[in-house]
Amino acid sequence: MARILPFRTEPAFTHGQPALTGILWCNLGTPDAPTAPAVRRYLREFLSDPRVVEIPRLAWLPLLHGIILPLRASRSAAKYTSIWTPQGSPLAVHTEAQARLLEQDLAARGHRVLVRHAMRYGAPSIASQLDALKAAGANRVLVLPAYPQYSGTTTASLFDAVSEWASRTRSLPEIRWVNRYHDDAGYIEALARSIERHWQAHGRADHLVMSFHGVPERTLTLGDPYHCECRKTGRLLAERLGLLPTDWTLTFQSRFGRAKWLEPYTEPTLQALARRGVGRVDVTCPGFTSDCLETLEEIGMEGREAFLKAGGRQYHAIACVNEDAEWIDALASLAEQHLQGWPSREPMDEPLQEASRERAVASGAAR
């Protein structure tokens, strides 16, 4: 019987080949298709992560596989169907485009950097994209999360996946992590410009709601900084927009289960605003850098229905920053800060330039 090797086989190496710097742009993930089997696979991986659900495995896993997945997969698949595009999952399309544009922006600044996108759950996986960067010659990798606010449920889980890959890799690249950028000036400016463009096109709302993804309240008491970082993002964005305290509200969405989560909750807040006589509300989701199920369906559809049924007259869901030029520029500046000290400004040789162009062409053709 052949012995199973504990480490992956290393890619071919030629002495003298140029060392490269890679960036791994990482998002949460998405099902491969808006079908119950695909959603079930995705949710199984996502909800099996102990960083996401901090319940003892012996109690949680039978509940997950026996009740939650069979009931939730079909309902979630219907929601994904409502936001799916001809190109696929919006989150996947935006995340791939952001990686391509980030590489182009950095190249325009003179950086010789390869950028690949990956998903914490689903495809392309963290491990497969790290393998791809190594195969391309990258011996330095910056791990850049699509999550501006740090949370153990997202950022730390991403780093777990990178560490797991590292535990099975013989020749490790240098690895750097970006933990957070919730108060980065470029990020705040990109958010503000996105909202201002919406107001220029549609007029200004009576009230702005900033909705962030929720997490269980106990994570705050256990030391997770997510709640505080969301609130700082909200404060800085409100200051940049010149809003008074009565002009905006910060909320948390996507509650799951019966436990108490961070409050105030988004949907009850929208209903309360409508009953209070607020005629038009705009909702922005600063914690999401790509539009996805939570922004397009939960905020764009369910939130609208809740507000209008409660007596509101106009409801606008503001798009995420997605591929906005200001956001890509801010992302490139953020990457530059964390690339300092790594040689990345050597002229890119012709084979690498050609490979970068081919990836850009292929990416555009796929969409």
From TrEMBL:
> Gene name?
hemH
Extent of the signal sequence: none
Keyword annotations: Cytoplasm, Heme biosynthesis, Iron, Lyase, Metal-binding, Porphyrin biosynthesis
Known role: Catalyzes the ferrous insertion into protoporphyrin IX.
- Spell out the molecular function terms from Gene Ontology: ferrochelatase activity; metal ion binding
Annotated Gene Ontology cellular component terms: cytoplasm
| Localization terms from the record | Cytoplasm
Protein name (database record): Ferrochelatase
Q: Which reaction does it catalyse?
A: heme b + 2 H(+) = protoporphyrin IX + Fe(2+); Fe-coproporphyrin III + 2 H(+) = coproporphyrin III + Fe(2+)
Pfam families per record: Ferrochelatase
Identify the metabolic or biological route this protein is part of: Porphyrin-containing compound metabolism; protoheme biosynthesis; protoheme from protoporphyrin-IX: step 1/1
Family, according to the entry, reads as follows: Belongs to the ferrochelatase family.
Which PROSITE patterns does the UniProt entry name for this protein? FERROCHELATASE
Instruction: Report the record's Gene Ontology biological process terms.
Output: heme biosynthetic process
Q: EC number(s) per UniProt?
A: 4.98.1.1
Q: Which InterPro entries match?
A: Ferrochelatase, Ferrochelatase_AS, Ferrochelatase_C, Ferrochelatase_N
- Renumbered to this chain, region (Disordered) spans 342-367
Provide the binding site for Fe(2+): 213, 294
Tell me where it mainly resides.
cytoplasm
The cross-references to Gene3D superfamilies, in alphabetical order and at most eight, read: 3.40.50.1400
